[in-house]
Amino acid sequence: MRRHARLAFYLLCLSAAAAQAQQPPRPPAMIDTATVSLDALLQEERLLQFDRFDRDTAAALGAALVARARGASRPVTLEIRQGDTVLFAQAMPGASPDHADWIRRKNNLVRRTGHSSFYTYNEVRQAGGDHDSLPGLDMRDYAAHGGAYPIVVRGRGAVGTVTASGLPGADDHALVVAALKDYLKIGEQP
To answer: Which burial class, exposed, middle or buried, applies to 58 when counting CB atoms under 10 A from its CB (0-12, 13-18, 19+)?
Structure first.
């Protein structure tokens, strides 16, 4: 039985790798991190908050994420958590099995800092630090790359995370922010 499970796992990995290899090359990230305003990212975090958050909210937000990812043919994995509970997860066509570990590590960073992983990435880079070597954090468990965002309920604080993985960090972040704005009906999105 174990041998069959391992074989199935290897076939799944090979299939995902083959699908990813067929994807067109990704364009470079659209955001120059040297010019990203930390104040603007903090303002964005204050703006993108919920009045309430539950399973229905997660399903609707997940649908907004999938619509954005599908519309741009993005090979990402998406996840929404409330605390330790996964309320929504979807791997788009061409997504890598490795995305799950990136999501775990990005989420750990958001839970530790209270800020989006893109905020922490930019904070460290603008201070001259190495975003892949944060003092006091084991990088096997934390990733300072864009794509994980705190789910904050007004009056309660952070209750979970919404995460995309599979694109350059700035693009993962932009995908999540666009879906949050879609769901919260904030501003115009292209």
So the answer is: buried
pTM: 0.79
Torsion of CA 43, 151, 144, 120, to 10 degrees: 20
Report d(CA 163, CA 116) in Å as an integer: 10
- Dist. CA 65–CA 57, nearest whole Å: 12
Task: Render pLDDT for 110-155 as a digit per residue (tens, 0 to 9).
Answer: 999 999 999 999 998 888 876 776 767 778 888 989 999 999 999 9
Instruction: Note the pLDDT of residue 46.
Output: 96
Count how many domains the chain has.
Answer: 1
Instruction: Yes or no: say if 172 and 164 are a contact pair by the CB < 8 Å rule.
Output: yes
Q: Which residues of 123-157 are buried (b: 16+ CB within 10 A; e: fewer)?
A: bbeeeeeebeebeebeeeebbbbbbbbbbbbeeee
pLDDT higher than threshold 50 for residue 1 = no
Range of 58's domain?
A: 32-184
For residues 70 and 92, give the distance between their C-alpha atoms in angstroms, rounded to a whole number: 8
Give the domain CATH number at 143: 3.30.450.150
- pLDDT at residue 93 tops 50: yes
Tell me how far apart the terminal alpha carbons of the chain are, to the nearest angstrom: 50
